[in-house]
Amino acid sequence: MTRHIQPRDDLRSLDGYHSPQLDVSVRLNTNESPFAPPVAFTEAWTAAISARDYHRYPSRAATELRTAIGAAFATTSDRVFAANGSNEVLQTLLLTYGGSGRSALVFEPTYALHAHIARLTATEVVESERRDDFTIDATHAVERIERYRPAITFVCSPNNPTGTVEPRATVESMLEAVRAVDGLLVVDEAYGDFADWSATELVGEEHPLVVVRTYSKVWSLAGLRLGYCIGPTWAIAELDKVVLPYHLSIEKQLAGVLALDFGADMATRVAHIVEERNRVVTALESLAGITVFPSGANFVLFRVHGDGHAVWQAMVERGVLVRDFSRWPRVEDCLRVTIGTRAENDEMLAALRAALEEVGVR
To answer: What residues have CB less than 8 Å from 53, skipping those under 6 apart?
Structure first.
């Protein structure tokens, strides 16, 4: 029998993070933008790429990109950190502030990669529960922070997979508790552009708060993998020490800068997606046999009063892929649908109606 080196003991039972990619006509399972980037952006980006020297490394500090992002949030470049998607931002935060002997607090159900990356970095995961409506109970959250004194406390708002937006008062209460235990509050706002407020309003030198964002959703650049965070200069400086050198390619840095010139286009898209989200919610609420949860994101979660997985499978057979959470704890029999184009949403609703009837959900 061939012998080979084994992974760390704490990783042996860990599953990878996967989302199905099936060959279907309507794919609404990964919360991507339904729109390609503006043609003018693509033309400007490809022209800029052709003028760069590829035998030279990209800017290690990504100064131009960070300056542009900072300007978009009325702050300075030394409060901005950029990386390969918001997931690498999360990984760098955990490499910097997590690790052996430290813990990360999460409020379930929430984005699975918070706990997954924590475990990859040998950070203990402390799980806490959300209310039945998927909001965080501020009093309970403060008690957990005081009790476990986590190095990092994660708040996903709007929350994935539920779409829940945490009130400013809840975040402020948690921030005060985190400060008292010398921890860091990380607010994941991958879907923040679709919500009615942003924790970036609270970022400052005196606050142990980092807000994580991405270009994948609103900016239609999921395929490029570009994310960033806004935080106090002292936190950002530590992330710069940990991240690998030259980690952001020339193409990504250029895309991130140029995309910000199309803010008006993106705002129009956000308004359209929010309008479509509201239309889809109304249509879902008219269906018997499901419960729809409020969303401040570009997706909607609903629970099937029956076999959620069977409904998901019946939808796939009709060429529509949504995210299947039916076998996840706390969101049993739930499915999550990304808001697509109007035509895609109509196909999804038709497939769902047929699937509910086929499975016998009433």
So the answer is: none
Estimate the share of the chain in helix, then strand, then coil, as percent rounded to the nearest 5: 45, 15, 40
How many whole angstroms separate alpha carbon 80 and alpha carbon 66?
6
Residue 171 has pLDDT above 70, yes or no: yes
7 falls in which pLDDT band (50, 70, 90)?
confident
Residue 166 lies in a domain: yes
C-alpha closest to that of 337 among 160, 100, 141:
160
- Domain match, 195 and 309 both: no
For residue 138, give its domain range. Answer: 56-261
What's the angle, vertex CA 54, arms to CA 50 and CA 55, rounded to 5? 150
Q: In what order do the strands lie in the sheet with 299-304?
A: 26-28, 320-324, 334-338, 299-304, 290-292
Q: What is the pLDDT of residue 16?
A: 66
- Residue-wise pLDDT tens digits, 73-84: 999 999 999 999
Domain closes at, from 261, 280, 298 = 261
